[in-house]
Amino acid sequence: MQKLPYFDIKRQHDPLLGGTLAAFEKVFTSGAYILGPALKDFECKFAGYIGVPFAAGVASGTDALIFALKAAGIKRGDEVIMPSFTFTATALAAIHLGAVPVFADVDEKSFTLDPRSVSKACSKKTKAILPVHLFGQCADMDALMEIAKAKKLKVIEDACQAHGATWNGKKAGAFGDAGAFSFYPTKNLGGIGDGGIVTTSNEGLFQKVLQYRNLGKGLQNPLMHDEIGWTSRLDSIQAAFLSIKLDRLDAFNDERRKLAVLFEEKLDKTPLVLPAQINGALHVYHIYVVRVPDGKRDALKSHLAQDGIPSMIHYEIPVHRQPVMRQYATKRVRLTVTERICREVLTLPFFPGMTGQEVATVAESVKNFFGK
Prior knowledge:
By secondary structure, the protein is of the alpha/beta class. It is 38% helix and 13% strand.
């Protein structure tokens, strides 16, 4: 019998029900279901939260990445440096444009792009760096922006797991030419369906994204199509809900950090390598990922399952070893850390609303496995 859920979204959403229904009724009676006032209000609100002047809602985080790269000028044959230890969508975004993903290694503690590996991975064809703020923690944006400036590269931040995370006080999605966020339901700021947004301080890039998301229609004359576009718009209903939830995002993130501290206290004396918040970063713990040494990851996962505790693996197969990526697997740099940690990582149950007793239940099972 399962003792606790891996993730329980109802604990976040139930207290929001009254405001959500009122917002939905307002959208429903307005008839403005696509590109309506609810979307514009949310875009302004989210841009202000991130600290940039512009934000454009789209249909998914993947589309946000594609549009941001395209609007930044990335085209067929261009190389985009990114981590392999990430979700496949990061690389797919570049491939959809005919660009070439070039994989660099990650830092052992943060799991984010290692600037030294990025420098080695650069070539004359490199046009952009695509750092992933993985599991809720920002990459070293000072070092990465310095590389980008020296080599005249674009920077598109994959912030799909990092809503509210900061690097030296500046929010994820505010550093590069653009940031891309996902509103998939399990994200720190998750909707009730798919959704995404592009953030930027570049008005020209913003204008292009507005066209890409809406079939390439001209912004001044919608009868004229002067870009090749998509149908990829954040629905008004989603925007209305996300606007309500955005008001609670910092509180939810605070709760995530408190849970992380509790896990750290309970698991401190086990052999697990616990998540590390690196200097300069404010971690928002999208998920709680530990490393299990000595080849015991799968055995621990099975033990937890037998105890009624679900867990997951993010990510067991790095992107460069996915079958669809065979033709893009470069050997320019060794992915030593990536190959090691993908054999060790395990994601424990973790979500706002999780109780101290549930954390203790997970920790007790882990300790029993290690005989502690």
